[in-house]
């Protein structure tokens, strides 16, 4: 019996209750079988990037799974780069914030989460934490699958395509930052996760 730890990392101001996280989780539960076990880990990330990665790496390192796959959306995609490089595992990135420190610097201050309106303080020191986690170049593009939407209203799809040069890429005409049509593309995500 093989086991895979699947880590899903949500975006900035988001949560494990985001639609893409829940759809991905449902799809993974549906492909479990006696020969292949999937351990699903989709934590609520913390405001501090450093603390978030410490929490996730602690979970990864106590897992007894045979392999690891990380899926991340937006800021979660940035974290996916860090983890996929650290553990030499597969990464699926959904409209990733490839240069998160630059993207989030304007958002320093009090913020609220999207689904609960719960306030949190996004501190200036978190920008340097993001800089410390920055991957300058992915080492093995074949380990990555990028979904980038040309209609992303927050991030530049061309930057994503350039950063993941050589990786499997699905560039969507239109769509948006949240990838409203994600369900249509989920079979390709699952196929990438399950392929050896």
Automatic annotation (TrEMBL):
Domain of life: Bacteria
TM regions (residue ranges): none
Annotated signal peptide: none
A Pfam family it matches: UPF0227
PANTHER family registered for this protein in UniProt: ESTERASE YQIA (PTHR35602:SF3), ESTERASE YQIA-RELATED (PTHR35602)
Full protein name: Esterase
Organism: Polynucleobacter brandtiae
Lineage: Bacteria, Pseudomonadati, Pseudomonadota, Betaproteobacteria, Burkholderiales
């Amino acid at each position: 019996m093989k086991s895979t730890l699947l880590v899903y990392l949500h975006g900035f101001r988001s949560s494990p209750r985001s639609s893409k996280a829940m759809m991905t989780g449902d799809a993974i539960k549906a492909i479990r079988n006696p020969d292949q076990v999937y351990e699903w880990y989709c934590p609520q990330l913390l405001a501090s990037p450093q603390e978030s990665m410490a929490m996730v790496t602690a979970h990864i390192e106590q897992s007894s799974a045979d392999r690891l796959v990380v899926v991340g959306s937006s800021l979660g995609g940035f974290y996916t780069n860090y983890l996929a490089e650290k553990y030499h595992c597969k990464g699926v990135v959904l409209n990733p914030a490839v240069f998160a420190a630059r993207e989030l610097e304007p958002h320093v201050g009090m913020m609220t989460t999207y689904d609960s309106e719960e306030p949190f303080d996004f501190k200036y020191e978190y920008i340097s934490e993001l800089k410390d986690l920055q991957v300058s170049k992915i080492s093995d593009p074949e380990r990555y699958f990028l979904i980038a939407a040309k209609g992303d209203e927050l991030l530049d799809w061309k930057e994503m395509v350039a950063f993941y040069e050589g990786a499997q890429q699905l560039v969507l005409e239109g769509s948006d930052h949240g990838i409203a049509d994600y369900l249509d593309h989920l079979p390709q995500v699952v196929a990438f996760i399950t392929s050896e």
